[in-house]
């Protein structure tokens, strides 16, 4: 049985070497987390959700507004007093 590296008494960080792996990192002050957010985010969201999927929410929104407008006008007409009922009042 081959003895493992852990049995040879090495610490956990020195268990083995990896060849052919390269790691790159930027310092915290060199990163630009918000780069292009304010000038590209609106355009990207508009293209992905509004331009491509407009038929999912524009017709229901228009129909809901028309129903709302009709109901508001019908309610106002139903609650309006008839002036002919009060023509003979003194």
Summarize the structure.
The chain has 2 helices and no strands. It is mostly helical and 90 residues long.
Instruction: Please report the number of helical segments.
Output: 2
What's the story with the biggest beta sheet? none
- What is the strand tally? 0
Parts with pLDDT < 50 across at least 5 consecutive residues: none
Query: Structural class, please?
Result: mainly alpha
Which percent band covers the strand fraction?
Answer: under 5%
What form results from the Cα inertia axes? rod-shaped
**Helix content class:** 40-55%
The chain-level mean pLDDT equals 81
Q: What pattern of helices and strands is seen along the backbone? A: HH
The radius of gyration over CA amounts to 36 Å
The rounded distance between the terminal residues' Cα atoms is: 115 Å
List the helices and strands and how they pair.
Elements: H1 37-51, H2 54-78
